[in-house]
Specification:
Chain B: It holds the Pfam family pre-PUA_NIP7. The complex is a heterodimer of chains A (about 850) and B (about 190). Chain A has about 850 residues and is an all-alpha fold. In chain A, about 65% of the residues lie in helices and about 0% in strands. Chain B has about 190 residues and is of the alpha+beta class. Classes of the chains: A mainly alpha (about 850), B alpha+beta (about 190). The interface between A and B is medium-sized, with 27 and 24 residues.
Chain lengths: ~850, ~190
Amino acid sequence: MGKKNKIILPPQLPPDIADDEIEISDEDLSFVKENKQYAGFLKTLDTKSINKHVSRVADAKEDTLEALYEKRIKKKKSLEGESKEKENGIEVDRVDVLPVKTLDGKLIYKTREPKVNEKEDEGAADNDGISNSLLKLTKPERRAKLKKSKKEAKQQVKDAVHLEEVQGNSQAEALAEIKEDLSTEKLFEVKKNKLAEVGMSLLADPEANIKSLKEIVEISKDEDHDVVKLGLLSLLAVFKDIIPGYRIRLPTEKELQMNVSKAVKKTRFYESTLLTTYKAYLQRLITFEKKSSFRHVSVRCICTLLEAVPHFNFRGNLLAAVVNNISSEDDAIRKLCCSTLKSLFTNEAKHGGEATLEAVQLIAEHVKAHDCQLHPDSIEVFLYLSFAEDLGKSEIPKDVKKEKYNAKKRKKEYEEQKKLQANDRKRSKQELLEKTREEVDADFKAASFTPDVMERRRMQTDTLSAVFQTYFRILTHTVQSATSRLLYNRIQTSIFNISVRIIFIPEFVIRLAAFIGGFKEDPSIDGFRVGTKSSTSSFFGRFGAHPLLAPCLNGLGKVSHLLDIDFMGDLMNCLKKLACAGSNSDGSLEGSLTVSERLRCCILAFKVMRNNLDALNVDLNEFFVQLYTLLLEYRPNRDQGEVLAEALKTMLCEGRQQDMQRAAAFIKRLATFSLSFGSAEAMAALVTLRDLLQKNVKCRNLLDNDAGGGSLSGSIAKYQACASDPNQSGALASVLWELSLLRKHYHPVISSAASTISNINTAQNQVYLATTTPQQAFKDLNIEHEVFDAKGNLGIPNKKNKIIFRFSVSAVNADDPANSYKVDEEDLKRKFSEHFTVLRDIGENQRLRRELNRTVSSVRLYEE
Amino acid sequence: MRALDEKETTAVFEKLFKFVGNNLKNIVEKPSHEGSDGTTQGRYCFRLQKNKVFYVSESLVKRATNISREKLISLGTCVGKFTKGGSFHLTIHALNLLADNARHKVWLKPTTEMAFLYGNHVLKGGLGRITENTAAGDGVVVFSMADVPFGFGIAAKSTQDCRKLDPNGIVVLHQADIGEYLRMEDDL
């Protein structure tokens, strides 16, 4: 209301001058004529609206305006009087507190009064509304005072161009508002107390006070958001505590009709009330989950409930809600959901694995529905799944026993048959015995808490199949978009069999739709997919075109030992396509994968192969070719060096034996690689190089200063640096001249490593331990590099010495004299100056030679 | 001595392609050091002489024209021969050519090297290593674990099938091995 009454005064207009009186100078005229473009805006000016704007108040309500001004002045006076009175009243004892000087120069004396108020206020807050009456009195006073002092300050400044508020009204307004505030606050307090009371009573004796659950639900339907939130949270606390450790099954009609004892009735009532309220609560939570204001609260409630009581009814709804939020754009919600799922996966004992299965299946559906455009976190939760491999193994002896038992039984039967069938009575007795034994067994199984092994295995199989399904979906999706956007396979029709290795009983061999192979052109699907992609990829775009690929590859690497051999071929083909994807699509970034992703594909291929090595030793030539080309495409800041180091480790260091040609090609390329990148990459490459040289004795020919390679170089007589196939590069015909350059590397570790490698042939003791892996080397130097840089900037000599000392300790081989890098500043300076002198001399030399040539040629010309 | 006609060329190339795949290009376009006078690089070509096919550098072909056809026994590298029925067989002499450009390789365990050199097939048990995605029917070059080429043959099973094969199953069907230099000295 107060705001509506407000009248905005126009700024003071310049004194009216008749148009005629304005004299326009010739200069101005000529300027306008010359620069018509400048003056163009004058034509477009909307004079009408300007006039209206300026004269709105002035023309229409002149009277009111005047009245307003009068009012204002009056109020000022009266206010001043008032405030003076106040001040007089307040000036009780100036001794107690120092006065405060306001900006406008007035002295304000603080009195004890507000302090008392404050104290009371605090007390009120503590005592939860016991002293509400006090609060009611003191608050408005304080507020009013505050407002007044503000007003005073404003008026003192006296530059109020327009009136802010009609004073009288505003005060009343403010008071009313405050009262309202206060009442809501009070109400809030009351409700809070009520919630606490009811909750406590519920927790104290849930069976007796079960009815009050509904009360809380009622409270949580309040209009006030805070109250609702509080209600939800307190309900959460209550439910978390009183939900029993079993699933509630509501009695059937038939059971209801039966006569039961009082205790049973009571329990039934309790359970049904609990269930209905729980259901209502969940419904509320799920509806709130869609509203932005309650989102965080409801998601947190859902997650906590799922974590605390995964065995209880309505788990499916909870799971669905959590999975829906698993790739939420809100970081907090996503993290919460993911951690809930993780704890669900790790604490399987709580729900016997059923929830895991459901969750995994839901995630699979989710991924399918979103066409693999989700946050990477949503797939990373799969890493926390655990599959007990010996679940099946324990079953084998049992089966064997059973068979033995059966055989025995058969034998017995046979003997029995051999015997006379006269003793029928005996047989019937035996049958009866067997029957009862079976019954007892079944009862025991039902009663025992240990979950059935077969059941668990079945669940694990299903879980695994869902996980693999998700992974393969992502892979095929990536393959599709990577190889060609026009190629799409018929997902529904191409069905491959995946039998997961844990399961060896034929009836449990699961059939899984794997969507690999069988491409088909389908432009209509293409259009649709592109549409969806563009809408979702905006958020997940920062994870690249294939946000799920990296976690998917990691996950597959973890469970690769569970893959069946039959399926491995398809997986390999898929990975090969992915690894080649970047090189095929030249230039167009749309479908191609990044270098890191392609490296990951190679790593995964090797992991899968290694985990199934017992079957066959397979040479993954294609992936080596990919790595060979990827080494050239690597860029330090764009791509992840860790992945490269891992690839080097898994593919080159851990591989058993290398083809000689290939090893030589890799050695040469790694040497070149280490020349052109930072120290961390270089070190990783050098470690790999050393490893390769150690394994392949023949490749040490590269270290000899004798180009040509002789008969070893094979058909290619000359080294081809750009060859894409390591077998065709003819690297054995070259020399590792890079090492002698690397010996002069600025980083002491690298230079020492390089000199060790170049001495590998002559050094007799080749027993030193190859402890460092490329990964380790990369990590070390990556950190050290930073330290090195930071200290280098400081330039403190003794600190430098310390670092250098550490370097020499961590150096790969410390027996080299070149390691003694006790370089101090002066030495460095001297070296630098030498270096630059040499450089300058070379420049000078060249210049002189050129001159000489020119003179010689001119002399010749002259002679001719 | 004459150049191969079209039918013969396809027969030879098809056979070689089985072993070397796209590296066939390297074989055909390989520059020869012999006879290159600095400006023009010599090339290698295929020549037929008395039902044997030879891989010869062009300069050698020119010089070989001085010898009459009846008297000429061999020139360059023999890669194979045409049978009476008109089909082409690779001989062991082609091994180096194949080994340098091989697409599919098989490495033998040291214990089975001798067995292969006596002309036997490669069994699963003797398999040291095998190139991934070898399909049945592909040409395979057989190496020792120290990367010495021993011979070549035809893959009997794909890499996938090899995994499930029992140790006595045949993986590579023997075609030629370097033991032939001793065993069939007269024929070669």
